[in-house]
Each structure stands twice: as C-alpha cells, then as structure tokens.
Design goal:
Strand content: over 45%
Radius of gyration: 13 Å
Helix content: under 10%
Number of domains: 1
Largest sheet: 7 strands, mixed
Number of helices: 0
Order of helices and strands: EEEEEEEEE
Number of strands: 9
Amino acid sequence: MDKPRVLVEFNEIVQDEVVLLSRSDEVTDSAGNSFLLKEGLEVSVYEFNHYDGGIKEFLFADGVAELNELSIISEWSKAVKWCCRINENGITVKNT
C-alpha cells in the first residue's frame, strides 16, 4: 500500500526536518480517505502554492508520524498533536 499523502504547511517546521502534521489522530489524505495516525507511520507530505505570474510551487517530502514532543516545540505549536519527521531525502521543491 502507498503511503498516505497529507497536506501540510512547510512554514510550520518546528525543528530541523520536523513539520506540524495534525491536531488530531484522524486525518484525510489527498484522495479524500480518512485514516488514523500512529507513531512511526510512513507518510508523504506536500504543499502547493500558486503565485502571481502563474508560477506554481510544489513541495513534498517523505517521513514518519510522531507525537509532538512538548520539549522541542514552541508555544504557538503546542495545540498540534502530530508531526512528521522528514527523512534523509529532505524537502523537494519544484516550480512550474
């Protein structure tokens, strides 16, 4: 089975290679399917931006779900339960 693909905001990186993923256990993937997050679940994360002038930016990465560790996060992100720890391939950016 393919990894679920989940929309994130890459400007919500709380630590090197850790991006906020979800406030709750249940999320919806890019195909509209609901599933439950669990520690260590492999996920793909993505973001799409459309800028003036017609430029489209696609960001994506693979990683694993992990509980948001209160000792490493900032005050503004403590309401989020789940994060994604991005793997060694990092974030890929494509502009069209």
